[in-house]
Amino acid sequence: MSDQTGTTDELLAELESRVEAYERGSATAEYSPEGRVLRANDAFAELVGLDPAEVAGAGHRSFVSPEMAESAEYTTLWEQLRSGSNRTGEFRLLWPGGHDRWIRSTFVPVKNRAGEVVKVIEHALDVTEGKRAAADAQGKIQAITRSQAVIEFDLEGNILDANDNFLDLVGYGRGEVVGRHHRMFVTAEEAKSQAYANFWQRLGAGEFFSGEFRRIGQGGREVWLQAVYNPILGVDGQPWKVVKFAVDVTEAKNRNADFEGKVTAIRRSQAVIEFDLEGTVLEANDMFLDLMGYRLDEIRGRHHRIFVDADEAGRPEYQAFWEKLGRGEFHSAEYRRITKDGSPVWIRATYNPILDADGKPVKVVKFANDVTAEKLRNVEYAGRLAAIDRSQAVIEFDLDGRILTANENFLNTVGYTLDEIAGRHHSMFCTDEYAASAEYRDLWAGLRGGEFRSGRFHRRGKDGRDVWIQSSYNPILDLSGRPVKIIKYAYDVTDQVRLEQQVSVPA
């Protein structure tokens, strides 16, 4: 009898040891048949985001999201557990701070000798990261499917499915392609080739392919695809189907086919010259030759420096310019160049490194337009503005009347520094009565609408002194004809006004 008792005790001890070992590595809780916690280990308390002391006595319902707790599915779960059925499921926890946390739980009802369920044991595992990863992957796949043409094949090339983007691209309905072979999208010649057979053999072996592919759509229409053929691996690591993601590049291919014609058009409308990577002239069109006053035989084989000042050609910056072009860097700017007779010409040009199939620069092509007349006009405008700035008081405002900048003449007229007025409103120069008047509001409303205003205006300088100016308010328009700021040009006529006032006073 004692031997039997000893054997039983040893068996119980072993079972208790196994349970303890399992609980040390698992989040475990015990519930009453009604779902109230009888006991829970620390791992479970951590899993549900509570202090261990808060878990005991809590209802399982309090751990899950409100939607789950109120669902028929949740009610059925506990009814089945109370009837003695094991259950496994995934639950979204009501995690402190509002963050989602998912667990996968196995519920095991424990029965007494009479077969009645006396408690339920839950073993839980945190699967949040897996759920997030799955959701992320699913979201990415959905995004790809929405934006790209997708088609699936078995390993022999038979079509399993295709999304609407792909079907629209090739012009077929789903029922017209599912079950047929990929060869329906290639020419008969290609379908019979050994290269095509090898293509599907290699996909079946797990190789992926990407590139541009010529395909045939409904009615023999040619379609070009930028596509990736991806073998999909099963849990055993072996391919079991092929998914193709594709983008329609037919239009781009057509554009490339048309490229030569466009380049020809550019050569007819712009000055074009070609150089090797060191800057030696290879070719030039008639427009460039006419602009610079040379014949082609006078410049071919010579260096680009014949078109620049000797001082510029000797600078380190000029050498660096060609070194950068030789590395494939693009340059665009306005450049001063020298014609055959020594006169300067201004060009707006782009220096374009031309790359070979390996992406390496092989030569430089320059497209240019003569902007000499434009530069001369701009110089004239700049000179006029400089003259105005020297002779008049000038101040700039935004459309709401905030001061942007002012020149020294204006600052001297009103007695302020630029720091004292920048960002403030024009009304600082007006009396309070005038600033609050309808006339003043109408002034700025008209200016914002693009109206020009001029006249003699009474203004307040620093410390409240009276200033009279003869001025014009000029709305500055953008290329669309919309006002973007206001520039005011003014003369100080304070002394003249005072003299007039003195003369008008009776003796």
UniProtKB/TrEMBL annotation:
<feature type="domain" description="PAS">
    <location>
        <begin position="272"/>
        <end position="302"/>
    </location>
</feature>
<dbReference type="InterPro" id="IPR050903">
    <property type="entry name" value="Bact_Chemotaxis_MeTrfase"/>
</dbReference>
<feature type="domain" description="PAS">
    <location>
        <begin position="394"/>
        <end position="424"/>
    </location>
</feature>
<protein>
    <submittedName>
        <fullName>PAS domain-containing protein</fullName>
    </submittedName>
</protein>
<feature type="domain" description="PAC">
    <location>
        <begin position="448"/>
        <end position="505"/>
    </location>
</feature>
<dbReference type="InterPro" id="IPR013656">
    <property type="entry name" value="PAS_4"/>
</dbReference>
<feature type="domain" description="PAS">
    <location>
        <begin position="150"/>
        <end position="180"/>
    </location>
</feature>
<dbReference type="Pfam" id="PF08448">
    <property type="entry name" value="PAS_4"/>
</dbReference>
<feature type="domain" description="PAC">
    <location>
        <begin position="209"/>
        <end position="261"/>
    </location>
</feature>
<feature type="domain" description="PAC">
    <location>
        <begin position="331"/>
        <end position="383"/>
    </location>
</feature>
<feature type="domain" description="PAS">
    <location>
        <begin position="34"/>
        <end position="84"/>
    </location>
</feature>
<feature type="domain" description="PAC">
    <location>
        <begin position="87"/>
        <end position="139"/>
    </location>
</feature>
<dbReference type="InterPro" id="IPR035965">
    <property type="entry name" value="PAS-like_dom_sf"/>
</dbReference>
<dbReference type="Pfam" id="PF08447">
    <property type="entry name" value="PAS_3"/>
</dbReference>
<dbReference type="InterPro" id="IPR000014">
    <property type="entry name" value="PAS"/>
</dbReference>
<dbReference type="InterPro" id="IPR000700">
    <property type="entry name" value="PAS-assoc_C"/>
</dbReference>
<dbReference type="InterPro" id="IPR013655">
    <property type="entry name" value="PAS_fold_3"/>
</dbReference>
<dbReference type="InterPro" id="IPR001610">
    <property type="entry name" value="PAC"/>
</dbReference>
